[in-house]
Amino acid sequence: MYDIEGLGNECTITEVNARAIMEAAAKRRVGGHNERYHEIIEWERRVQKRKYRLISTTEEAFASVQSVTANNQNKIFGEPMEALGAAQAVFSAIARPLNKYLKLTRQQPRHTADQVVAHLARCLSLRFTAATFLQRFFSSKFPFPEHVRETKWSIVCNVQASAGIRHGTVFVLRCHERDDDAGVQLLCSLHSFPFFNLTEQQSLTSKFALKITPESNV
Q1: N or C: which end of the chain has fewer CB within 10 A?
Q2: Exposed / middle / buried, residue 183 (Cβ in 10 Å: 0-12, 13-18, 19+)
Q3: Where are the beta strands (DSSP E) in 93-175?
Q4: Please, are residues 5 and 11 in contact by the beta-carbon 8 Å criterion?
Q5: Whether 98 contacts 170, CB under 8 Å
Q6: How far apart are CA 49 and CA 81, in angstroms?
Q7: 202 to 81, 126, 199, 206: CA distances (angstroms)
Q8: pLDDT, position 152
Q9: Which residue, 217, 215, 208, 185, is CA-closest to 77?
Q10: Model confidence over 12-62: pLDDT tens digits?
Q11: Can you count the helices (H) and strands (E) in the chain?
Q12: How far is CA 78 from the centre of its chain?
């Protein structure tokens, strides 16, 4: 045994007691790991629970919005409204589960109420699904930063950078910053775009109505 404190014979411990102390310390470390593991599992369970509750509520809210067209104008269940009004009605139905999910995942500062309503109105106008609307809340790539600062990169390629770009060219972009992108290298390959024949089509509707039922939350 080692006399760390330098107390000599006044501080002695038997080998059996020393082994017991070390075993107790090892058990505490293992217990701490298990506790941390269960905390992470519990947090992930809560996230998944609130995520699927949000998905269910949003799908129900989207299903309650009915597009107003010339064919169904006489069959609507409510007063026609613009996309923004329909978005505000849908937001009132999903606000509670959405706020709970954003709070748990610490995304509240990144998604204000006005931004969510504007995103809702855009999705309704383009007839996107509830899954498309929710994509930005489930992805770490959204929202995009408002200001992208200047960074320094270099091109590594067997062909001179001043040469013409051709199909099949492969090069590497290497970052020279000292922040989170330090040492990042992007392998890039160039491919020519196929030909797309685009035609313009007028949107069928810009009006919406709510299908009000006794079970509706909107």
Answers
A1: N
A2: exposed
A3: 153-156, 170-175
A4: yes
A5: no
A6: 33
A7: 19, 12, 10, 11
A8: 86
A9: 208
A10: 566 777 777 777 776 666 556 677 778 888 989 999 999 999 999 999 999
A11: 4, 5
A12: 34
